[in-house]
Amino acid sequence: MTIQQEVDFQRIAKAIHFLQENFRTQPTLGQIASHVYMSEAHFQRMFTSWAGTSPKKFLQYISLNHAKSLLKENNIAETTFQLGLSSSSRLHELFINIEGMTPAEYKNEGAKLLISYYYYETLFGPIIIASTSKGICHIAYEEDKDSAFKTLQKRFPNASFIQQIDLIHENALKALNPHNNDIGQVKLHLKGTAFQLKVWEALLKIPMGNLSTYGSIAAQIGNPKASRAVGTAVGSNPIAYLIPCHRVIQNSGIFGGYRWDPKRKTAMIGWESLHTAI
């Protein structure tokens, strides 16, 4: 993704947010384009190239009614996934393997770990990917590289770091591209409590194009009264997109917050819903 592509994605995210906020008045293409300071023709081409459809059609996939309908179908989708019958979803659990860091690695905050990191571009914006010798330990959407590295350092204050393109990153980068079906196994080496790891593993079972709720995740891990704790664990997910915390929304159908920008979450949900419906 070039600098121009990043600017375009920010415009797309801004346009999606505008559509959500103003859907009752049914804004025209000209009004949407004007909001992101573009001509109608240029905006239409840019948005269609990214989303594969018009802004107006995309709106139906980020609407409250659509989210509610997905939640109603969630039990069917989860059952299908568990039985291995889903052909339309990317079966995350089958190709993403989570390994928790040892108690010593967790306690020592990365001491003796050498972490390779680099900055990459994806459909939903720029990211930083970081890995240990065992697997990916951190993926985050971040426009500013200095800020991205500081966040990584804060998570592993006692680790050593080297900025380099790593072979371990390659499969992760493939999986971060929703268009890509040629994906090998991705290994994750995660710093988290036993409860967090259980929640993150549950997130992998939400198929692309589907949504779940904090309460559903709590029930799935055998602790139905732990919705709030699940919400905290979801919010602390260290692996953007691959562990699909963006697919967890409120019971009401409202998308809610996202640590890497709620507009990006909306873009992800809409894009996945659209392309799994095709």
Report on the architecture of this protein.
With 278 residues, the protein is an alpha/beta fold. It has 14 helices and 8 strands. A hairpin with a 4-residue loop joins β3 and β4. α4 (55-61) packs across α14 (262-277). The chain starts with a helix and ends with a helix.
Structural class, by secondary structure, is alpha/beta
Shape: globular
Which regions contain 5 or more consecutive residues with pLDDT less than 50? 79-94
Distance between the termini: 25 Å
Helix percentage range? 40-55%
Q: What is the CA-atom radius of gyration, in angstroms?
A: 19 Å
- Please, what is the oligomeric state? single chain
β-strand percent reads 5-15%
Order of helices and strands: HHHHHHHEHEEEHEHEHEHHEH
How many β-strand stretches?
8
Total of DSSP H or I helical runs spanning 4+ residues: 14
Query: How many strands, which pairing sense, and closed or not: the largest β-sheet?
Result: 4 strands, mixed
Which strands sit side by side, in order, in the main sheet?
4-3-2-5
Average pLDDT works out at 86
Question: What key phrases describe this protein's structure?
Answer:
four-stranded mixed beta sheet; 14 helices; alpha/beta; 278 residues; single chain
